[in-house]
Amino acid sequence: MIRDLRRARSSDPSHDWCDVLYVGSADVEATQRFFTDFAPESHCIADPSGELYESFGLGKGNAWQLFGPAVFAHALGAMWKGNGIGVPSGDVLRMSGFFRLEHGSMTWAWRGKHVGDHPSLDTVRAHACRTPNAKTNSTS
Amino acid sequence: MYALTPLSDAVLDRPLTGYRVDGTLRNRSAEGALLLVFLRHFG
Q1: pLDDT for B39 beyond 80
Q2: CA–CA dist A79, A65 (Å, integer)
Q3: Is A138 within a domain?
């Protein structure tokens, strides 16, 4: 998703992109290495203890969320897109999520149904605009 | 160059009543919309 978002931002500069802040579950050193190599312009928080994840309702996945058929379908799709499988850094059990914050409140929330789940780039793009109060609360 | 924000600077109010956030996140989102992306892992 980082790569997709970076591509979208560079290919569509006319979109009123808001700031994007990444949160990762790896330690500071691994997070630093990753973003230095792959997204040096990005802002990120290293949260190895999962405190911030838990605060936003992102717990650890259960067996179905980690190993269900939808997860394998997603993995195949990711490989088809050219995303390799490397040694993961961070908590591989942790669920992912997207949240739009505006004036101290959450105006959009998306939490994955399984570890391979993610919103479409169009959905993220629609919520990643600077326009105030453009979106309503929603979860999936 | 990216900014690696220590978690201690982004601590939230507890409990997270009505999803209101405090500290760095509130300050940043007060300036405009902020998209927070929780990654699963790197690699």
Answers
A1: yes
A2: 19
A3: no
Chain B neighbors of A32, CB-CB under 8 A: 4
Q: Are the beta carbons of B42 and A43 separated by less than 8 Å?
A: no
Inter-chain CB proximity B5 and A43 less than 8 Å:
yes
Closest to B38 (Cβ–Cβ): which among A26, A56, A104? A56
Residue ranges per structural domain of chain B: 1-43
- Range of the structural domain that residue A97 is part of: 2-127
> Which tokens belong to A78?
């990711």
Chain A nearest CA to B33, separation (Å) = 5
Q: In chain A, how many domains are there?
A: 1
pTM for the model stands at 0.75
Enter the DSSP assignment of B6: -
pLDDT in tens, A46-66: 888 888 888 888 988 888 888
- Prior bond of A40 cis (ω within 30°): no
| Cα–Cα distance, A108 to A98 (Å, whole number) | 8
The pLDDT tens digits of the residues spanning A67-85 come to: 787 777 777 777 777 666 6
